[in-house]
Each structure stands twice: as structure tokens, then as C-alpha cells.
Amino acid sequence: MAEPEQFDRRNLSEAYLAERAKFIRLETLRLTRIAGAGHYSSTFSAAELFAALYYGHLRLDPKNPNWEDRDRFVLSKGHAAIGLYPILADLGFYPPSKLDDFTRLGSAFGDHPDMKKIPGIDFSSGSLGHGLSIALGMALAGRLTGRDYRAYCMLGDGELNEGQIWEAAMAAGHFQLQGLVGIVDRNQLSIDGPTEKVMSVEPLADRFTAFGWEVHRIDGHDLSAVMATLSALKPAGVGKPQMIIADTVKGRGVKYMELSLDWHVGNLVGADYDDAWAEIEGGLQPFVREDA
Amino acid sequence: MSAAGQDQSTLFRGDEGELRLKDAKSVRGTPAKAMPAFILGEELADLAEADPRIVVATADLANSSRTRDFANSHPERFIDFGIAERNMITAAAGMASCGLVPYVATFASFAGILAAEAIKTDCAYPRMPVRIIAHHSGISMGFYGTSHHATEDLGMMRTIADLTVVCAADANQLRAILRASVDHPGAMYIRLGRGRDAEVYSEVPQDFAFGKATMLRDGTDLTIIATGSQVHAAVVAAGRVAETGVTVRVLDMHTIKPLDEAAIRAAARETGAILAVEEHNVVGGLGSAVAEVLVDEDRLPFRRHGILDEFSLIGPPAALYAHYRLDADGVTAVAKELLKIAD
Q: What rounded mean pLDDT belongs to chain B?
């Protein structure tokens, strides 16, 4: 099917996507300061995933946000919207200046995204556990209406504690919705601690496999791996729904935040802000576990 | 009082002759005898013939809701989600966001209570045209007990902004509701009984409109405001109370939200007392909604009648309706108490 004119992907390279991931992290810092609080570390873990999806993969048209054949993207971990808003502005869904009053009284842009107020948001989210069911419905609708878009859903790992996720996972396998693509930002932490201590989600690949999914497990900060996996996704049709488990690091890109329970949500001021900004500007450094 | 164990449809049958409807007009020549849940799948199938956006889903209750009739004629647009009500309602919202108009049916206790947050967050808040068909509401599940009774759902649904909440009194009104629902903006909660409600409307009411109560009878001494299954009981009770020499208005308040406040205010000014009757807890439902309007009006005798904030007993439905005075005899007695008319 003919695609409308899209943003320029001609010069797409891994270096370009890395630059966009940096942009996402820096914008997250800026917006956190405007709001006085934000879920920065949950966005940092997803920065490469966001960059690859929005700049390199999803079929969409910023000039026609309601294009019926566009790919759908549901941000089930809605608290990472602070990282998605700048991308949508950058792509031209709305002017970047719209974000200057982020979260202020009357702003369309809150901590969780509202589809009725923000072009490019395919569904409102915020209450964890809903998004996979929403994307399931979108994929079903695609099948019923004969459209070949895929429905993507980005999930948090802690969110997988919610029972409804597994209702949707069961249904997706049952209905053989190959056009449904899940992406777990496996950043290892939920609010109260490591997921495996709070409420374990592993063995995650085995669990989705058992529910009838085709599972890919990759390093979610490795842009070449992310792009290769996205490019190899099967088209919408009858077959196994597709799950990408992206192993990531919560807070990735700012050393003092990486896998730290102290930096889930809040404001960043003074040296914390300046240090984070400078470190992100310098680009991703190799991740080293503290206990390594 | 009616005999315990008697089937509700049998119970009401002898009273049907008392019903009078002046303005009901037939639409599409529909026969009037079917009962609500029993016509659900058939009516949706008719609507789907003309509208490719309509899809129907159930959560393993295709027979109870008679959505099986839709599945038989439109198998490609029928989805059984299994016993996973929240997933069904949320997925319906996803489908609606892609241009479909989903009708999703399950027991009211699982639609309006178990999945209440899915209705709020995924249907009402983003204003998705999902139609939640909550069948077997109130105490109509009888001896299945409290887990299957839904006497809280109206209270929960009524507090959700931008959600239309409507109760069907019988099969013909349900047809009118379904026909009017297709292009109605936003999400809708449609509350049904168990498919055995006695006939109130002899034909599909052509003048049905969401948010506009239907006056079934006029009078000046009392207004009975009823919804859903209690409309029939209210009409019969009004006839019996009128035999004592008073006149009674009956309002079918089919739409709980948006509420027809003007009809309630008119009743407060033009009639001597108000009785609200519902198959639901008196806390949070129709009676509460009416009280919220009446608080602005001059005081007049007012009573909420329904389940009096308790978990209902188990028993055959007819016995329960008699016990809770939610049959014609019971509503008649409550109305007479309110008007201080001795038996």
C-alpha cells in the first residue's frame, strides 16, 4: 500500500538514532525541571527503544495523525510519556513550543498521555496493565477491517504483575494475532525494588512462549540489535503474536541513576541536574554493574 | 404477595392487561413479545446488517446473553474473549479507537463491578464508543448469590463522567436503546435484567431518547420514578394505588446518566410525593440520583425504594423480588405507605 510522505529516513544511521536517544534523555531532563517532577529513569531505559521505533520503524504520518493505515503504538507504561512527547514534537505532530508549559494548569501534556488532547498518541494510558488489551483490540480491528498495520505496545516489567496483561497475552495467542507486537522495557526495577524481589516476572521469555508468543530477547540499549529485531518482525496476519523482551537498565545514561531505587520519580536540581545533563551530552558509556 | 419459586415471567403475566401506552409507535414492524436478553443478539445482528462497524463480544456467556444469535449470523464479527471481562472491555476500547462500534456483553456483576476501572479508564475517559451490555443485573441471578448479584453497578457507573448509563425495561425498549446507541457519542453502559422482564412497551417506542424520561401515566398525588426491571412493577402498582382514589404519575427513568432532571423537578412541583424504585442498592443508584435533584426543590414526601444497603439473600428470583418488595405487590405497598393509604 502506498505510504504518504513521511519524515526523512534517508540518512538514518545508528549514529543518528543514538543522537535521537540523547535528545530524548535531554528533553526528559528539561521537562522534568518544568514540571518539578518526572519519571526520568523509566524513560532513560526506553530511550533507544523509542528512538528506533519512532525514527526508524513505525509507519506513521505526522501530518495525518489519524491515518487509518498507520501503525498503532500504545505506551502501556504511560509514565514514560515524558520521553515520547518530545519525539512527537520533533517529528512534527505539534510544535515543540507546546511542551514549554508541560504539566502546567490547562496543558495537554501530563505525566500520562491523553489521546484526546495530543496528536500522535494512539491511546490514553496511565493505569498499568491495560495497554496490551488495547493493542490486542487494535490488532483485532485491523484484522476485521482488512488493514495491514501492526499494533505495538510498550510494557514495563513491573507492570507484568498485573493480571490483565496475561488475559491479553492468552487472547493474543489464541487469536493468532501476528500483527500484535509487545515490547517489554525490562529495566529490572519497579518502585519498591528489583522486580525479582518485589514480584518476580522471570522466566519471562518462557512465560510468553508458553502463552503462544514468538519471543525475541535483546539488549534494549543496543541500537543495531533493536533495529535488526524490529526489521525482522513478521507482517500482520495469522500467526504468533510477537514479543520483544528488551533487557535495559533503569536510569541508563546517568551513572548515579542506573539501577538505583532512589531515582524513580522526582525533581532534579543543582548539581544533580547539571551532572546528568553533562553525562548525557557525552553519550552512552558502557554499563558496569556495581556488584561486578 | 407472589409465591416463592414462581417464575418471574409467569408472575407478571396476569398483570399485563393493566398496561396502557398512548404514544408507542412501531418501528420496522418489530413483534413485541420477545424479552430483553433474548432479543439482544437478534437485534444486534439486524443492526450489523446495515452497519459494518458493529462487532459483538462476550466473555464465555454467548448463550446467557443470546449473543449466540449474532454469532450465528455474523461469525466474523463475533469475538468470545473467554472468562476475562476486563480484557474484553479494554480490547473493545482498542477496537473502537480503530473505528469499530463494539457491543460487549457479560453479567452486570462482572461488567459494571469487576471491570469498572476498564470502563472508566479505557472507555469513558477517551470517549470510545464501546457499548457495555450488563445483563442479569440486580438480584435477577437469584440463588447464584451475592457474587452474581449486581446491586452496586449503577452507583459506580453513575460517578463516571461522560458515560451514558441506561436501563432497559423490556425487549421493545431495549431495541430502541440499541438502535439509538449505534451513533451515540461516547461510551455507554446498558443494564438489562435476565431476559424475562414483563412487557411494558407493546411496540418499540419511537420517541425514545437518551436522557429523556418517558411518562407512562400521569397523575398529581404521587410520582413513581422507576428504571429497568422496576418500570413494569411501578406501572402495575400505580394502577392499584389509583384504585384508592388518588392519581399517580409514572416516569420510566431509563437513562440514569445523563439524568432527566427537568422531569424530576416537574414531578416535584406538580405531584404530591415521589417514590424512586430500582433493583439496586438505594445507596448510589436511581434513588440517590433523584435525591440529588430534589435537594434543590421544596421539600415533599420522598422515598427511595430498592435494596436497602445490604447483601441480598439467595433464592429464586421471584421469591427475592417479593421479599425485597420489588414486585408489583411490594411497590404498591411501599407507595401506599408513602401516601399513608391504609390497605
A: 90
In a domain, A182, yes or no: yes
Please, which residues bridge with residue A155 across strands? A184
Q: How many domains does chain A have?
A: 1
Percent of chain B with pLDDT over 90: 86
Contact list in B for residue A138 (CB cut-off 8 A) is 94-95, 97-98
- Cell 440499541 belongs to B178
* Rounded distance between C-alpha atoms, residue A232 and residue A250, angstroms: 26
Chain A CB contacts of B84 below 8 Å:
164, 167, 170-171
CB-based contact A115 B126, cutoff 8 Å: yes
Residue A287 domain-assigned?
A: no
Q: Which domain holds residue A175?
A: 14-281
Chain B CB contacts of A121 under 8 Å are none
| H and E: helices and strands count for chain B | 13, 12
CA distance, residue A116 to nearest chain B CA (Å): 6
Inter-chain residue contact B121 with A124, CB threshold 8 Å = yes
In B119-139, which positions are buried (b, 16+ CB within 10 angstroms) versus exposed (e)? bbbbbbbbbbbbbbbbbbbbb
pLDDT for B3 equals 34
Please give the CATH architecture assigned to the domain spanning B14-191: 3-Layer(aba) Sandwich (3.40)
Neighbours of A262 (CB within 10 A): 9
Tens of pLDDT, residues A123-177: 999 999 999 999 999 999 999 999 999 999 999 999 999 999 999 999 999 999 9
Q: How far is B80 from chain A (nearest CA, A)?
A: 10
pTM for the whole structure = 0.91
Give the distance from residue A93's alpha carbon to the nearest chain B alpha carbon, in angstroms.
Answer: 18
Task: Suggest the residue from A67, A115, A124 to mutate for an interface test with chain B (most B CBs closer than 10 A).
Answer: A124
| Residue B79 bridge partners (DSSP) | B57
The whole-number pLDDT of residue A205 equals 98
Give the class (CATH, top level) of B214-339. Answer: alpha beta
For CATH 3.40.50.970, the residue range(s) in chain B are 14-191
Placement of cell 502501556 in the chain: A76
